[in-house]
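Q: What would this complex look like in 3D?
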Amino acid sequence: MTAACSIAATSSVARAAAALEKGEPIATLIDISRCIGCEACVHGCKEANADKYPRPEKPFPRMYPKGVKAEDWSDKIDVIDRLTPYNWLYIQSATVEIDGEERELTIPRRCMHCTNPPCVKLCPWGSAIQLDNGISRIDPEICLGGAKCQTVCPWLIPQRQTGVGLYLDILPAFAGNGVMYKCDRCYNKIAQGEIPACIEACPENVQTIGPRDEILKQAHDLAAGMNGYIYGEMENGGTNTFYVSPVPFDKLNSAIEKGKGKPHLAAVSDSMQTGERLAMAMLLAPVAGVAGAAARFYRMSKKDDE
Amino acid sequence: MTLSEKIIRYIYMIIFIFLTLTGFAQMPIFKRYHIADIPGLGWLAQFYVTHAMHYIFAALLIGLCCYLSVDHMLDGRKERKLTKTGYAKAVMIAGLILTGALMVVKNFSGTPYPPLMVSLLDLCHLALCLVLLFYSLLTVITRKHWVRYPIREIINRWNMESGKGVN
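A: Here is my prediction, written as C-alpha coordinates for the whole assembly.
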Protein backbone atom coordinates (compact mmCIF):
# COMPACT_ATOMS: atom_id res chain seq x y z
CA MET A 1 0.00 0.00 0.00
CA THR A 2 2.81 2.43 0.99
CA ALA A 3 4.74 1.58 -2.21
CA ALA A 4 1.60 2.12 -4.32
CA CYS A 5 0.99 5.49 -2.63
CA SER A 6 4.55 6.64 -3.19
CA ILE A 7 4.41 5.61 -6.89
CA ALA A 8 1.14 7.49 -7.33
CA ALA A 9 2.60 10.48 -5.48
CA THR A 10 5.70 10.45 -7.69
CA SER A 11 3.65 10.41 -10.90
CA SER A 12 1.52 13.28 -9.53
CA VAL A 13 4.73 15.22 -8.83
CA ALA A 14 5.89 14.54 -12.38
CA ARG A 15 2.57 15.69 -13.85
CA ALA A 16 2.44 18.83 -11.71
CA ALA A 17 6.02 19.64 -12.72
CA ALA A 18 5.13 19.10 -16.39
CA ALA A 19 2.19 21.47 -16.10
CA LEU A 20 4.38 24.06 -14.41
CA GLU A 21 7.01 23.83 -17.13
CA LYS A 22 4.39 24.29 -19.84
CA GLY A 23 2.85 27.20 -17.85
CA GLU A 24 -0.49 25.39 -18.01
CA PRO A 25 -3.11 25.50 -15.31
CA ILE A 26 -3.01 22.66 -12.81
CA ALA A 27 -6.16 20.76 -11.95
CA THR A 28 -7.01 18.05 -9.44
CA LEU A 29 -9.19 15.01 -9.92
CA ILE A 30 -10.94 13.75 -6.78
CA ASP A 31 -12.35 10.23 -7.04
CA ILE A 32 -15.12 10.17 -4.44
CA SER A 33 -15.60 6.41 -4.78
CA ARG A 34 -12.11 5.83 -3.34
CA CYS A 35 -12.37 8.16 -0.34
CA ILE A 36 -12.72 6.33 2.98
CA GLY A 37 -13.07 9.49 5.10
CA CYS A 38 -9.92 8.79 7.12
CA GLU A 39 -9.17 12.56 7.25
CA ALA A 40 -5.46 12.00 6.59
CA CYS A 41 -5.71 14.77 4.00
CA VAL A 42 -7.27 17.13 6.57
CA HIS A 43 -4.45 16.53 9.06
CA GLY A 44 -1.82 16.67 6.32
CA CYS A 45 -3.19 20.06 5.24
CA LYS A 46 -3.17 21.40 8.80
CA GLU A 47 0.38 20.24 9.39
CA ALA A 48 1.74 21.64 6.12
CA ASN A 49 0.01 25.02 6.44
CA ALA A 50 0.37 25.61 10.19
CA ASP A 51 2.86 28.45 9.68
CA LYS A 52 0.35 30.26 7.44
CA TYR A 53 -2.38 30.16 10.10
CA PRO A 54 -3.41 33.44 11.75
CA ARG A 55 -2.04 34.44 15.13
CA PRO A 56 -4.54 37.10 16.22
CA GLU A 57 -3.82 39.81 18.73
CA LYS A 58 -6.34 40.04 21.53
CA PRO A 59 -8.34 41.86 22.69
CA PHE A 60 -9.67 42.73 19.22
CA PRO A 61 -10.05 46.46 18.54
CA ARG A 62 -13.62 47.59 18.96
CA MET A 63 -15.45 47.85 15.64
CA TYR A 64 -18.18 50.26 14.60
CA PRO A 65 -21.07 50.35 14.06
CA LYS A 66 -22.40 48.23 16.90
CA GLY A 67 -23.32 44.85 15.52
CA VAL A 68 -20.14 44.27 13.51
CA LYS A 69 -19.16 40.83 14.74
CA ALA A 70 -15.64 39.64 15.32
CA GLU A 71 -15.01 36.15 13.93
CA ASP A 72 -12.69 34.28 16.22
CA TRP A 73 -11.56 30.72 15.54
CA SER A 74 -8.27 30.97 17.40
CA ASP A 75 -9.66 28.94 20.34
CA LYS A 76 -11.20 26.39 17.97
CA ILE A 77 -8.17 25.40 15.92
CA ASP A 78 -9.06 21.72 16.23
CA VAL A 79 -12.47 22.06 14.54
CA ILE A 80 -12.32 19.89 11.42
CA ASP A 81 -15.99 19.32 10.61
CA ARG A 82 -16.24 22.53 8.54
CA LEU A 83 -14.03 25.11 6.82
CA THR A 84 -12.47 27.65 9.18
CA PRO A 85 -9.46 30.00 9.00
CA TYR A 86 -7.51 27.11 10.56
CA ASN A 87 -9.09 24.31 8.55
CA TRP A 88 -8.94 24.67 4.79
CA LEU A 89 -10.10 21.16 3.88
CA TYR A 90 -12.67 18.96 5.53
CA ILE A 91 -14.52 15.72 4.86
CA GLN A 92 -18.20 15.92 3.97
CA SER A 93 -20.27 12.75 4.18
CA ALA A 94 -23.40 11.68 2.33
CA THR A 95 -25.41 8.52 2.82
CA VAL A 96 -26.87 7.54 -0.55
CA GLU A 97 -28.28 4.48 -2.26
CA ILE A 98 -26.05 2.78 -4.82
CA ASP A 99 -27.39 -0.33 -6.61
CA GLY A 100 -30.06 -0.75 -3.98
CA GLU A 101 -27.55 -0.61 -1.16
CA GLU A 102 -27.14 2.25 1.30
CA ARG A 103 -23.60 3.52 1.32
CA GLU A 104 -21.76 6.40 2.90
CA LEU A 105 -19.69 8.46 0.50
CA THR A 106 -17.09 10.86 1.89
CA ILE A 107 -15.95 13.92 -0.02
CA PRO A 108 -12.90 16.12 0.68
CA ARG A 109 -14.12 19.71 0.31
CA ARG A 110 -12.07 22.86 -0.19
CA CYS A 111 -11.76 25.81 -2.57
CA MET A 112 -12.56 24.77 -6.14
CA HIS A 113 -9.88 27.08 -7.66
CA CYS A 114 -12.16 28.43 -10.36
CA THR A 115 -10.75 29.26 -13.78
CA ASN A 116 -12.22 32.80 -13.50
CA PRO A 117 -12.39 33.17 -9.72
CA PRO A 118 -14.81 35.86 -8.48
CA CYS A 119 -12.90 36.03 -5.18
CA VAL A 120 -9.85 37.21 -7.09
CA LYS A 121 -11.53 39.35 -9.72
CA LEU A 122 -14.05 41.13 -7.49
CA CYS A 123 -11.89 41.91 -4.43
CA PRO A 124 -11.90 45.72 -4.18
CA TRP A 125 -8.29 45.79 -2.91
CA GLY A 126 -6.65 43.20 -5.14
CA SER A 127 -5.92 41.05 -2.07
CA ALA A 128 -6.55 37.81 -3.92
CA ILE A 129 -4.33 36.58 -6.71
CA GLN A 130 -4.67 34.00 -9.43
CA LEU A 131 -1.34 32.40 -10.26
CA ASP A 132 -0.40 31.35 -13.80
CA ASN A 133 -1.04 27.73 -12.82
CA GLY A 134 -4.66 28.51 -11.97
CA ILE A 135 -4.27 28.49 -8.19
CA SER A 136 -6.15 31.29 -6.44
CA ARG A 137 -4.87 32.50 -3.12
CA ILE A 138 -5.57 35.35 -0.73
CA ASP A 139 -2.57 37.43 0.29
CA PRO A 140 -2.77 37.72 4.10
CA GLU A 141 -0.50 40.81 4.03
CA ILE A 142 -3.01 42.84 1.96
CA CYS A 143 -6.41 41.37 2.84
CA LEU A 144 -8.52 43.59 5.07
CA GLY A 145 -11.09 40.90 5.89
CA GLY A 146 -14.03 42.59 4.19
CA ALA A 147 -15.40 39.14 3.31
CA LYS A 148 -16.69 40.21 -0.11
CA CYS A 149 -14.76 37.21 -1.50
CA GLN A 150 -16.85 34.91 0.68
CA THR A 151 -20.11 36.52 -0.44
CA VAL A 152 -19.30 36.36 -4.16
CA CYS A 153 -17.92 32.80 -3.97
CA PRO A 154 -20.71 30.44 -5.08
CA TRP A 155 -19.58 28.03 -2.34
CA LEU A 156 -18.85 30.69 0.34
CA ILE A 157 -15.38 29.17 0.82
CA PRO A 158 -13.12 31.89 2.33
CA GLN A 159 -13.31 32.09 6.14
CA ARG A 160 -12.48 35.13 8.25
CA GLN A 161 -10.32 35.49 11.33
CA THR A 162 -10.54 38.82 13.17
CA GLY A 163 -7.57 40.42 14.87
CA VAL A 164 -4.92 39.88 12.19
CA GLY A 165 -3.76 41.74 9.14
CA LEU A 166 -3.35 45.15 7.61
CA TYR A 167 -6.65 46.53 8.88
CA LEU A 168 -5.10 46.82 12.36
CA ASP A 169 -2.68 49.44 10.96
CA ILE A 170 -5.26 51.53 9.12
CA LEU A 171 -8.61 52.22 10.79
CA PRO A 172 -9.49 49.04 12.68
CA ALA A 173 -12.61 50.57 14.22
CA PHE A 174 -14.20 51.53 10.90
CA ALA A 175 -12.72 49.49 8.07
CA GLY A 176 -11.79 45.83 7.74
CA ASN A 177 -12.32 42.94 10.10
CA GLY A 178 -9.33 40.60 9.84
CA VAL A 179 -8.05 38.36 7.06
CA MET A 180 -9.74 35.72 4.90
CA TYR A 181 -8.28 32.22 4.65
CA LYS A 182 -8.80 29.30 2.29
CA CYS A 183 -7.00 26.50 0.52
CA ASP A 184 -4.07 27.86 -1.50
CA ARG A 185 -3.34 24.51 -3.13
CA CYS A 186 0.00 24.48 -1.30
CA TYR A 187 1.22 26.94 -3.92
CA ASN A 188 4.63 27.17 -2.26
CA LYS A 189 5.13 23.36 -2.42
CA ILE A 190 3.99 23.32 -6.06
CA ALA A 191 6.50 26.08 -6.86
CA GLN A 192 9.23 23.77 -5.54
CA GLY A 193 8.07 20.85 -7.66
CA GLU A 194 6.23 19.11 -4.79
CA ILE A 195 2.56 18.19 -4.53
CA PRO A 196 -0.13 19.55 -2.18
CA ALA A 197 -0.03 18.08 1.32
CA CYS A 198 -3.53 16.58 1.04
CA ILE A 199 -2.50 14.50 -1.98
CA GLU A 200 0.75 13.39 -0.34
CA ALA A 201 -1.09 12.30 2.82
CA CYS A 202 -3.88 10.35 1.15
CA PRO A 203 -3.46 6.55 1.57
CA GLU A 204 -6.14 5.74 -1.03
CA ASN A 205 -4.99 7.76 -4.11
CA VAL A 206 -8.23 9.73 -4.07
CA GLN A 207 -6.59 12.76 -5.72
CA THR A 208 -4.57 13.16 -8.90
CA ILE A 209 -2.96 16.44 -9.92
CA GLY A 210 -1.59 17.50 -13.26
CA PRO A 211 -2.13 19.67 -16.35
CA ARG A 212 -5.80 20.65 -16.60
CA ASP A 213 -6.51 19.19 -20.05
CA GLU A 214 -4.99 15.86 -19.07
CA ILE A 215 -6.79 15.69 -15.73
CA LEU A 216 -10.12 16.62 -17.29
CA LYS A 217 -9.74 13.80 -19.82
CA GLN A 218 -8.91 11.45 -16.97
CA ALA A 219 -12.02 12.62 -15.12
CA HIS A 220 -14.18 11.89 -18.16
CA ASP A 221 -12.62 8.43 -18.58
CA LEU A 222 -13.11 7.68 -14.87
CA ALA A 223 -16.71 8.88 -14.92
CA ALA A 224 -17.43 6.82 -18.04
CA GLY A 225 -15.88 3.76 -16.40
CA MET A 226 -18.10 3.96 -13.33
CA ASN A 227 -21.24 5.35 -15.10
CA GLY A 228 -20.50 8.32 -12.91
CA TYR A 229 -20.76 12.07 -12.84
CA ILE A 230 -18.40 15.03 -12.77
CA TYR A 231 -18.64 18.18 -10.66
CA GLY A 232 -16.38 21.17 -11.22
CA GLU A 233 -15.98 21.09 -14.99
CA MET A 234 -18.79 23.51 -15.85
CA GLU A 235 -19.68 24.89 -12.42
CA ASN A 236 -19.08 28.64 -12.12
CA GLY A 237 -17.80 28.69 -15.71
CA GLY A 238 -15.24 25.97 -14.95
CA THR A 239 -12.94 25.16 -12.04
CA ASN A 240 -9.62 23.38 -11.57
CA THR A 241 -11.15 20.74 -9.31
CA PHE A 242 -13.04 17.80 -10.77
CA TYR A 243 -15.01 15.56 -8.44
CA VAL A 244 -16.02 12.21 -9.93
CA SER A 245 -18.88 10.38 -8.24
CA PRO A 246 -20.79 7.14 -8.89
CA VAL A 247 -23.93 9.01 -7.79
CA PRO A 248 -25.50 12.17 -9.33
CA PHE A 249 -24.35 15.31 -7.56
CA ASP A 250 -27.87 16.57 -6.95
CA LYS A 251 -28.42 13.39 -4.90
CA LEU A 252 -25.19 14.02 -3.02
CA ASN A 253 -26.18 17.65 -2.49
CA SER A 254 -29.45 16.57 -0.87
CA ALA A 255 -27.60 14.16 1.42
CA ILE A 256 -24.75 16.36 2.68
CA GLU A 257 -24.90 18.74 5.61
CA LYS A 258 -24.72 22.29 4.28
CA GLY A 259 -24.28 25.60 6.07
CA LYS A 260 -21.57 28.02 7.17
CA GLY A 261 -18.22 26.55 6.23
CA LYS A 262 -19.99 23.55 4.69
CA PRO A 263 -20.29 24.14 0.95
CA HIS A 264 -23.02 22.65 -1.25
CA LEU A 265 -22.74 20.52 -4.36
CA ALA A 266 -25.50 22.21 -6.32
CA ALA A 267 -25.28 23.38 -9.93
CA VAL A 268 -23.59 26.77 -10.25
CA SER A 269 -23.92 29.05 -13.27
CA ASP A 270 -21.00 31.24 -14.37
CA SER A 271 -21.10 34.14 -11.92
CA MET A 272 -18.76 36.32 -13.99
CA GLN A 273 -20.67 35.83 -17.24
CA THR A 274 -23.15 38.73 -16.84
CA GLY A 275 -20.26 41.13 -16.35
CA GLU A 276 -18.47 39.76 -19.42
CA ARG A 277 -21.59 40.24 -21.54
CA LEU A 278 -22.20 43.77 -20.23
CA ALA A 279 -18.57 44.61 -21.03
CA MET A 280 -19.52 44.21 -24.68
CA ALA A 281 -21.98 47.12 -24.19
CA MET A 282 -19.00 49.27 -23.30
CA LEU A 283 -17.55 48.53 -26.72
CA LEU A 284 -20.79 49.64 -28.40
CA ALA A 285 -21.14 52.77 -26.24
CA PRO A 286 -18.49 54.91 -28.02
CA VAL A 287 -19.94 53.92 -31.40
CA ALA A 288 -23.41 55.01 -30.25
CA GLY A 289 -22.03 58.27 -28.83
CA VAL A 290 -20.13 59.16 -31.99
CA ALA A 291 -23.11 58.22 -34.18
CA GLY A 292 -25.40 60.40 -32.07
CA ALA A 293 -23.08 63.41 -32.35
CA ALA A 294 -22.64 62.90 -36.10
CA ALA A 295 -26.42 62.68 -36.59
CA ARG A 296 -26.92 65.92 -34.62
CA PHE A 297 -24.21 67.65 -36.68
CA TYR A 298 -25.90 66.49 -39.90
CA ARG A 299 -29.31 67.81 -38.72
CA MET A 300 -27.81 71.16 -37.63
CA SER A 301 -25.97 71.49 -40.97
CA LYS A 302 -29.17 70.82 -42.91
CA LYS A 303 -31.00 73.42 -40.80
CA ASP A 304 -28.23 75.96 -41.44
CA ASP A 305 -28.37 75.28 -45.21
CA GLU A 306 -32.14 75.84 -45.20
CA MET B 1 -29.23 77.06 -20.74
CA THR B 2 -30.98 75.45 -23.71
CA LEU B 3 -33.30 72.48 -23.27
CA SER B 4 -30.80 70.02 -24.75
CA GLU B 5 -28.10 71.32 -22.39
CA LYS B 6 -30.45 70.83 -19.43
CA ILE B 7 -31.24 67.29 -20.58
CA ILE B 8 -27.54 66.46 -20.93
CA ARG B 9 -26.91 67.87 -17.46
CA TYR B 10 -29.61 65.69 -15.88
CA ILE B 11 -28.46 62.58 -17.71
CA TYR B 12 -24.89 63.21 -16.53
CA MET B 13 -26.10 63.76 -12.96
CA ILE B 14 -28.04 60.48 -12.90
CA ILE B 15 -25.10 58.57 -14.39
CA PHE B 16 -22.71 60.22 -11.88
CA ILE B 17 -24.96 59.40 -8.90
CA PHE B 18 -25.45 55.75 -9.84
CA LEU B 19 -21.80 55.23 -10.79
CA THR B 20 -20.70 56.64 -7.44
CA LEU B 21 -23.25 54.59 -5.49
CA THR B 22 -22.57 51.31 -7.30
CA GLY B 23 -18.85 52.02 -7.27
CA PHE B 24 -18.77 52.41 -3.50
CA ALA B 25 -20.99 49.34 -3.30
CA GLN B 26 -18.10 47.26 -4.69
CA MET B 27 -16.58 47.63 -1.23
CA PRO B 28 -18.31 45.72 1.58
CA ILE B 29 -19.47 48.89 3.37
CA PHE B 30 -23.20 49.26 2.76
CA LYS B 31 -24.08 46.12 4.69
CA ARG B 32 -21.66 46.92 7.51
CA TYR B 33 -23.00 50.42 7.92
CA HIS B 34 -26.67 49.30 7.63
CA ILE B 35 -27.31 51.47 4.55
CA ALA B 36 -28.57 48.35 2.82
CA ASP B 37 -31.10 47.88 5.65
CA ILE B 38 -32.93 51.03 4.55
CA PRO B 39 -36.12 49.89 2.75
CA GLY B 40 -35.54 49.94 -1.00
CA LEU B 41 -31.74 49.98 -0.73
CA GLY B 42 -31.13 46.28 -0.10
CA TRP B 43 -29.72 45.94 -3.61
CA LEU B 44 -26.69 48.01 -2.53
CA ALA B 45 -25.37 44.97 -0.63
CA GLN B 46 -25.84 42.58 -3.56
CA PHE B 47 -22.43 42.57 -5.21
CA TYR B 48 -23.41 41.01 -8.54
CA VAL B 49 -26.31 43.48 -8.94
CA THR B 50 -24.18 46.55 -8.20
CA HIS B 51 -21.40 45.13 -10.40
CA ALA B 52 -23.78 44.82 -13.36
CA MET B 53 -25.26 48.28 -12.70
CA HIS B 54 -21.80 49.82 -12.52
CA TYR B 55 -20.98 48.32 -15.92
CA ILE B 56 -24.27 49.59 -17.42
CA PHE B 57 -23.83 53.15 -16.15
CA ALA B 58 -20.15 53.10 -17.17
CA ALA B 59 -21.25 52.23 -20.71
CA LEU B 60 -23.73 55.14 -20.59
CA LEU B 61 -20.97 57.48 -19.37
CA ILE B 62 -18.64 56.36 -22.17
CA GLY B 63 -21.44 56.92 -24.70
CA LEU B 64 -22.23 60.36 -23.29
CA CYS B 65 -18.54 61.38 -23.23
CA CYS B 66 -18.07 60.29 -26.85
CA TYR B 67 -21.25 62.11 -27.90
CA LEU B 68 -20.24 65.36 -26.17
CA SER B 69 -16.59 65.19 -27.33
CA VAL B 70 -17.50 64.64 -31.00
CA ASP B 71 -20.32 67.19 -30.79
CA HIS B 72 -17.87 69.78 -29.42
CA MET B 73 -15.31 68.97 -32.12
CA LEU B 74 -17.92 69.19 -34.91
CA ASP B 75 -19.38 72.49 -33.66
CA GLY B 76 -18.56 74.72 -36.59
CA ARG B 77 -19.62 77.98 -34.91
CA LYS B 78 -17.17 77.40 -32.02
CA GLU B 79 -19.43 79.37 -29.65
CA ARG B 80 -18.82 77.03 -26.77
CA LYS B 81 -15.49 76.70 -24.95
CA LEU B 82 -14.42 74.33 -22.21
CA THR B 83 -13.49 76.14 -18.97
CA LYS B 84 -10.48 75.21 -16.82
CA THR B 85 -12.96 73.49 -14.50
CA GLY B 86 -14.34 71.59 -17.46
CA TYR B 87 -10.87 70.48 -18.55
CA ALA B 88 -10.02 69.34 -15.04
CA LYS B 89 -13.20 67.30 -14.75
CA ALA B 90 -12.74 65.88 -18.26
CA VAL B 91 -9.26 64.68 -17.34
CA MET B 92 -10.55 63.05 -14.15
CA ILE B 93 -13.38 61.33 -16.00
CA ALA B 94 -10.94 60.16 -18.68
CA GLY B 95 -8.77 58.70 -15.90
CA LEU B 96 -11.77 56.94 -14.38
CA ILE B 97 -12.78 55.50 -17.75
CA LEU B 98 -9.22 54.32 -18.46
CA THR B 99 -8.69 52.67 -15.06
CA GLY B 100 -12.22 51.25 -15.22
CA ALA B 101 -11.67 49.79 -18.69
CA LEU B 102 -8.44 48.13 -17.54
CA MET B 103 -10.32 46.57 -14.63
CA VAL B 104 -13.07 45.33 -16.94
CA VAL B 105 -10.40 43.54 -18.99
CA LYS B 106 -8.93 42.15 -15.76
CA ASN B 107 -12.32 40.62 -14.92
CA PHE B 108 -12.40 38.53 -18.08
CA SER B 109 -11.40 34.89 -17.88
CA GLY B 110 -7.77 34.28 -18.80
CA THR B 111 -6.51 37.80 -18.08
CA PRO B 112 -4.81 37.68 -14.70
CA TYR B 113 -3.02 40.93 -13.86
CA PRO B 114 0.03 41.17 -11.54
CA PRO B 115 -1.20 41.78 -7.96
CA LEU B 116 0.51 45.18 -7.68
CA MET B 117 -1.19 46.38 -10.87
CA VAL B 118 -4.60 45.32 -9.55
CA SER B 119 -4.08 47.17 -6.26
CA LEU B 120 -2.79 50.30 -8.07
CA LEU B 121 -5.73 50.33 -10.50
CA ASP B 122 -8.19 49.91 -7.62
CA LEU B 123 -6.61 52.72 -5.60
CA CYS B 124 -6.29 55.11 -8.61
CA HIS B 125 -9.91 54.49 -9.57
CA LEU B 126 -11.06 55.18 -6.00
CA ALA B 127 -8.78 58.22 -5.61
CA LEU B 128 -9.97 59.76 -8.91
CA CYS B 129 -13.58 59.16 -7.86
CA LEU B 130 -13.06 60.89 -4.50
CA VAL B 131 -11.21 63.83 -6.07
CA LEU B 132 -13.93 64.24 -8.73
CA LEU B 133 -16.63 64.00 -6.06
CA PHE B 134 -15.14 66.71 -3.88
CA TYR B 135 -14.18 68.90 -6.85
CA SER B 136 -17.73 68.63 -8.22
CA LEU B 137 -19.15 69.63 -4.83
CA LEU B 138 -16.80 72.61 -4.79
CA THR B 139 -17.80 73.70 -8.30
CA VAL B 140 -21.49 73.43 -7.43
CA ILE B 141 -20.98 75.63 -4.37
CA THR B 142 -18.80 78.17 -6.23
CA ARG B 143 -21.02 77.99 -9.37
CA LYS B 144 -18.20 77.07 -11.73
CA HIS B 145 -19.35 75.65 -15.07
CA TRP B 146 -18.07 73.05 -17.53
CA VAL B 147 -18.40 75.37 -20.52
CA ARG B 148 -18.60 79.05 -21.32
CA TYR B 149 -19.98 80.99 -24.28
CA PRO B 150 -17.66 83.99 -24.85
CA ILE B 151 -19.73 85.50 -27.69
CA ARG B 152 -22.95 85.18 -25.69
CA GLU B 153 -21.21 86.82 -22.71
CA ILE B 154 -20.13 89.78 -24.88
CA ILE B 155 -23.67 90.20 -26.33
CA ASN B 156 -25.20 90.03 -22.84
CA ARG B 157 -22.77 92.67 -21.60
CA TRP B 158 -23.69 94.99 -24.51
CA ASN B 159 -27.39 94.40 -23.81
CA MET B 160 -26.92 95.10 -20.10
CA GLU B 161 -25.04 98.31 -20.88
CA SER B 162 -27.71 99.45 -23.31
CA GLY B 163 -30.53 98.39 -20.95
CA LYS B 164 -31.92 95.59 -23.19
CA GLY B 165 -31.50 92.73 -20.60
CA VAL B 166 -29.69 89.35 -20.72
CA ASN B 167 -30.01 86.49 -23.27
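A: To summarize the key features: Chain B touches chain A through 40 residues (CB under 8 Å). The helical segments of chain B are 3-24, 47-74, 84-106, 115-141, 150-161.
Q: Very helpful, thank you.
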